[in-house]
Design goal:
One of its GO terms (biological process) is sodium ion transport. It comes from Filifactor alocis (strain ATCC 35896 / CCUG 47790 / D40 B5) (Fusobacterium alocis). It is found in: Cell membrane. Keywords: Cell membrane, Ion transport, Membrane, Sodium, Sodium transport, Translocase, Transmembrane, Transmembrane helix, Transport. This protein has 378 residues and is mostly helical. It has a domain of 260 residues. Helices cover 71% and strands 2% of the residues. The chain has a two-stranded antiparallel ribbon with strand order 1-2. The longest helix has 29 residues. The mean pLDDT is 86.
């Protein structure tokens, strides 16, 4: 009978906090529909790994010996030792993306680069706050606005804050419809938000669409070799899509594979959300820094658009620059919604999608650049 009470009596205050966080993530997933495929398994996993004497993580039980927990096993196999889960997810993401709007207006690549400013801002801020360089770089990558990239980089750098970084990255991705309008209005005027943009797409040949993922992989590999796994898997997924001869695999990669890996990744990353490692002042700081990273990503893209407008005859609506973050396709939708609110005749969606897919490339390349810089420095 004492054994029945042992679990209840073993619950700590930190574990209760994690139960609260788990319930919050589940609430946001179900009630608010914020990234449910990720936040729901992460929330439930946060509860699972923090139950006293839980069987989902490795433990030594008297009379039985060492017991292997499924979530810890998945974490070691799928993330820690091989980074397989986040990389496989990139194949699915690549198979979903149409780079046509970007290829028809290549200058959108500039917005994909400028909107990574939050990464370097967050890295600098983390360093000033006392985090060591590897942890600061891992925290900074929250600004990539790309959950798999954040997990992969923080895991390769052996950051002890993988769980907090993943929660911050995915939470703020889900909150893009709230965070971005605030940041956009912070640095733009109503007149700027009403700038009209006509969409006259250039015809992009099938050959160009096929060559694009190959060329991007080679160039990224030359400039930032550590980005090859990130960029390569993303572009491999896109090459499957654009080849036109693998329709079945394209559908599988963009639906079944992506959905399965997303669910596994969400519940597996919860291993890093154990109370003893997660509940701390550092976690709170990481959440705050992550918010600043997203805000400055948005501002970086907007300020580049404003700079280009000083030299270009055909003006660009600065909100399109905000879509250069990697939160695809949410950021593009936010820009379109705000544009219609300011002027019901101004449709910016396709321009914003071009910047948004450029941001997807920019985020994975930035992740590789960060890894290269850390390797060179250390």
């Amino acid at each position: 009978m004492d054994f029945l009470y042992q679990g209840i009596l073993s619950i700590t205050l930190q574990q209760l906090v994690m139960y609260g966080i788990g319930f919050l993530l589940i609430y946001l997933a179900i009630k608010k529909d914020f990234e449910p495929a990720l936040l729901l398994p992460m929330g439930f996993g946060a509860i699972l790994v923090n139950l006293p004497f839980t069987g989902v993580i490795n433990q030594n039980i008297n009379g039985i010996g060492q017991v292997t927990g499924i979530i810890e096993w998945l974490f070691h196999i799928g993330i820690e030792s091989s980074e397989a889960l986040p990389l496989l997810l990139f194949i699915g993401i690549g198979a979903m993306i149409d780079f046509g709007p970007l290829l028809s207006n290549p200058k959108m690549l500039l917005f994909g680069a400028a909107a990574q400013f939050g990464i370097f801002f967050a890295l600098s801020l983390s360093t000033l706050m006392g985090f060591d360089l590897k942890d600061a770089a891992s925290i900074g990558i929250i600004g990539a606005a790309d959950g798999p990239t954040s997990i992969l980089v923080s895991q390769i750098l052996h950051s002890k804050y993988v769980g907090a970084i993943a929660v911050a990255a995915y939470s703020y991705m889900a909150l893009v419809p709230i965070v971005q309008p605030f940041a956009i209005k912070l640095v733009t005027t109503k007149k700027e938000r009403r700038i009209p943009m006509k969409y006259n797409p250039k015809q992009v040949s099938r050959q160009t669409k096929i060559l694009f993922p190959i060329v991007v992989t080679i160039v990224a590999g030359m400039v930032a070799p550590m980005s090859v796994s990130l960029v390569g898997f993303l572009m491999f997924g896109n090459l499957i899509r654009e080849s036109g001869v693998l329709q079945g695999l394209t559908e599988t990669a963009s639906t079944s594979l992506a959905n399965l890996i997303t669910l596994l990744l969400g519940i597996t990353i919860s291993f890093s959300m154990r109370a003893d490692a997660f509940v701390s002042l550092d976690t709170l700081l990481i959440m705050v820094i992550g918010l600043f990273a997203f805000i400055f990503d948005t501002i970086g893209g907007i300020m580049l658009a404003k700079l280009l407008n000083l030299f270009c005859k055909e003006k660009c609506n600065p909100m399109v620059g905000a879509a250069g973050i990697s939160a695809f396709p949410m950021s593009a939708r936010v820009v379109q919604k705000m544009a219609l609110q300011e002027d019901p005749t101004n449709h910016l969606l396709m321009h914003a999608i071009g910047a948004n897919v450029a941001g997807q490339i920019g985020s994975v390349v930035a992740g590789g650049v960060i890894l290269n810089l850390i390797r060179m420095y250390l």
